[in-house]
Write a structure and sequence with these properties.
The chain is mainly alpha-helical. It folds into 2 domains: 36 residues; 217 residues, MetI-like (MetI-like fold). It has 10 helices and no strands. The longest helix has 39 residues.
């Protein structure tokens, strides 16, 4: 009986979500009508017009492509670095303790300070990727280490007794075991990656980037344009998070872990 009710519950919750979204739009339109100041609360129709204007602009399309390239580059560089550093740290406690000060420093450092230093060190073009890498690395690293620590010790001993080759253990045992933790950390860090990249672009002002377009629209006091850019970024972030959540399906053992 439970499986038959689950699809209906999901459909009901979907209707509730859509109803809440429509109510939010109606409240926004009502506030815009009452305030009558576009610089504070623009009408929804104005935001849609600005979104269309931006999307058909060649400069905006180039900015989207380059910003997405920076997001991809920083995220996958961080993912590779996490695997290279996090797996040994999860296997050997001394390595984890040796990396603890670096992890603490990366978690504690103010994002604004990192951006300003990166502008001095790397210039406007290299700042977004460097800052994003530094900010999201502790999240992915800690997720991977927590996953390694959760592995059943008896299974580790079993593989050692039977002398299973290390790379086979890594592919068939360790990676499927840590995948749920790594996927959860990836979803969190990817959303943060979007925000950090855009913030770094706004401050560093590279030649092309969504953050640069943000700064241009802000300097024109175009609130509708800024809102349109925010909605675009929300849609892109949702697509990327959905992609990351489905990435692990092809790795052996991932489906068994979820069941």
């Amino acid at each position: 009986m439970m499986p038959s009710t689950m699809p209906r519950n999901r459909k009901k919750y979907r209707y509730i979500a859509w109803a809440a979204a429509i109510l939010l739009l109606l409240l926004w339109e009502l506030a815009a009508h009452l305030v009558q100041r576009e610089i504070l609360i623009p009408r929804i129709s104005r935001i849609v017009e600005e979104a269309y204007r931006l999307m058909v602009s060649p400069e905006m399309l180039a900015a989207i492509g380059i910003t997405l390239g920076r997001i991809f580059l920083s995220f996958f560089l961080c993912l590779i670095l996490t695997l290279v550093v996090g797996i040994p740290a999860g296997l050997w406690k001394p390595i984890e303790m040796a990396l603890k000060p670096i992890e603490t420093m990366a978690r504690s450092v103010p994002t604004m300070g990192v951006i300003l230093l990166a502008i001095i060190w790397l210039g406007s073009e290299g700042t977004p990727v460097f800052v994003s890498l530094l900010i999201i690395f502790p999240i992915l690293y800690r997720s991977l280490v927590e996953g390694m620590n959760s592995i059943d010790v008896k299974m580790v001993v079993f593989h050692r007794i039977h002398q299973v080759p290390f790379f086979k253990r890594l592919r068939c045992f360790y990676l499927p075991s840590i995948l749920p933790f790594l996927r959860a950390g990836s979803v969190t860090s990817l959303g943060l990656c979007f925000k950090v990249i855009i913030a770094a672009e706004v401050l560093s002002q590279p030649q092309y980037g969504i953050g640069t377009i943000f700064q241009i629209e802000r300097s024109r006091l175009n609130t509708a344009g800024v809102m349109a850019l925010c909605i675009l970024l929300i849609a892109l972030a949702a697509l990327f998070e959905s992609f990351v959540q489905r990435t692990g399906n092809g790795i052996p053992g991932s489906k068994q872990r979820r069941s």
